[in-house]
């Protein structure tokens, strides 16, 4: 390989040292992609004797290069990654391997293809270890750095991948138990820093107004219009408690009073049907699990009814709750959705 080519590729790989992941370390700083990759390789080396019939040298190579595309794209946490993001990462890999001579390019292209198909045992091992390394890192980090959705993720993330082998399944169970013990030992209450309230008298009208005016669909509503709409429906509010500490969430509610960061309204007869409207989470608190927390509460109280809503860009989110699009979604910007009663 020409020295210039080698150094160019090394220069791009250096970005993996700079690009940060979501996960926090025991010293509270965020880990880099390179740090995650290093320990994933250590992980693979430690378990190699458990898989005598596998090509563990190939597993090590897959671990070494599995996040190479993030040198260009940066890390995107699994709980917010979309199909478009995965396509972008694939394009980045194509650009990166094109920098290499034919032999090396072919070797990496074949490795990435095998990883993506996830058909061989070697690829399955890498996917399982990759997810478990993330779980291990979260267990090692201060629980105050966990997002609300990570309490559930620590219990479920990587389960499917670890079913590929009994040893991987056993290892996943041990990691899950450590997560459970950590939550218990820390005395953590998932609702210790947030809560949900219903009814207009519990809403913070000025904050609800700010939330709705930040959206495309309600940017022109006056405070009086918003107040009347709440009077004629059932409003739900998601609140952060005053004094929520640094590290618990990206931004803290430190102004001396509880802060409303989420809102939704439900129109219902309480017997047959409900209509969900104005569902919004303050932008800086999105992708942290708060939307799921609010929606879980709404569905707990209304999910047995026939439900309706419309959305522009949250179709996948509502599908998790049983909603399905109505009609041809390609012919209109807004997607109308419904769910059967249960």
UniProtKB/TrEMBL annotation:
The domain of life is Bacteria
Q: What class of enzyme is it?
A: hydrolase
- SMART domains from the xrefs? HDc
What positions does the domain N-acetyltransferase occupy? 194-342
Reported EC number(s) for this entry are 3.1.3.89
Q: Enumerate the UniProt keywords alphabetically.
A: Hydrolase, Metal-binding, Transferase
Q: Which cofactor does it need?
A: Co(2+); Mn(2+)
Recorded hits in CDD domains, A to Z, give: HDc, NAT_SF
Keyword presence, Endoplasmic reticulum: no
Q: Which PROSITE patterns match?
A: GNAT
Q: Tell me the GO molecular function terms.
A: 5'-deoxynucleotidase activity; acyltransferase activity, transferring groups other than amino-acyl groups; metal ion binding
Q: State the reactions this protein catalyses.
A: a 2'-deoxyribonucleoside 5'-phosphate + H2O = a 2'-deoxyribonucleoside + phosphate
Q: Mind telling me which InterPro entries this protein's record contains?
A: Acyl_CoA_acyltransferase, GNAT_dom, HD/PDEase_dom, HD_domain, YfbR/HDDC2
Listed under GO cellular component are:
cytoplasm
Q: What Pfam families does the annotation carry?
A: Acetyltransf_7, HD_3
Record flagged with keyword Membrane: no
Q: How does it assemble?
A: Homodimer.
Q: What is this protein called?
A: 5'-deoxynucleotidase
The species this protein was found in? Dorea longicatena
């Amino acid at each position: 390989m020409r020295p210039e080519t080698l150094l160019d590729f090394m220069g791009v790989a250096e970005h993996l040292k700079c690009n940060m992941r979501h996960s926090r370390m025991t010293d509270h700083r965020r880990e880099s992609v390179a740090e995650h990759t290093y320990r994933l390789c250590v992980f693979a080396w430690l378990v190699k004797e458990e898989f005598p019939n596998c090509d563990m040298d190939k597993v090590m190579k897959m671990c070494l290069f599995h996040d190479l595309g993030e040198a260009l794209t940066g890390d995107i946490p699994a709980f917010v990654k979309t199909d478009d993001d995965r396509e972008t990462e694939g394009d980045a890999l194509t650009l990166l391997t094109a920098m290499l001579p034919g032999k090396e390019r072919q070797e990496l292209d074949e490795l990435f293809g095998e990883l993506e198909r996830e058909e061989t045992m070697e690829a399955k091992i890498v996917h399982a270890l990759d997810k478990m390394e993330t779980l291990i890192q979260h267990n090692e980090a201060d629980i105050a750095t966990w997002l609300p959705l990570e309490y559930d993720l620590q219990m479920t993330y990587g389960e499917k991948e670890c079913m590929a082998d009994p040893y991987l399944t056993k290892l996943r169970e041990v990691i899950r138990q450590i997560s459970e013990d950590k939550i218990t030992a820390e005395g953590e209450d998932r609702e210790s820093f947030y809560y949900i309230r219903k009814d207009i008298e519990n809403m913070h009208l000025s904050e609800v107004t700010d939330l709705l005016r930040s959206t495309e669909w309600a940017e022109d509503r006056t405070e009086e219009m918003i107040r009347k709409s709440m009077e004629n429906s059932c409003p739900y509010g998601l609140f952060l408690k005053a004094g929520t500490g640094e590290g618990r969430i990206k931004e803290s509610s430190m102004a001396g009073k509880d802060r409303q960061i989420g809102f939704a309204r439900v129109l219902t007869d309480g017997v047959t049907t409900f209509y969900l409207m104005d569902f919004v989470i303050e932008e800086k608190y999105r992708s942290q699990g708060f939307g799921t927390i609010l929606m879980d509460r709404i569905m707990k109280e209304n999910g047995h009814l026939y439900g309706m809503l419309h959305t522009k860009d949250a179709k996948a989110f509502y599908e998790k709750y049983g909603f399905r699009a109505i009609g041809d979604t390609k012919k209109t910007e807004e997607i109308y959705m419904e769910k059967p009663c249960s």
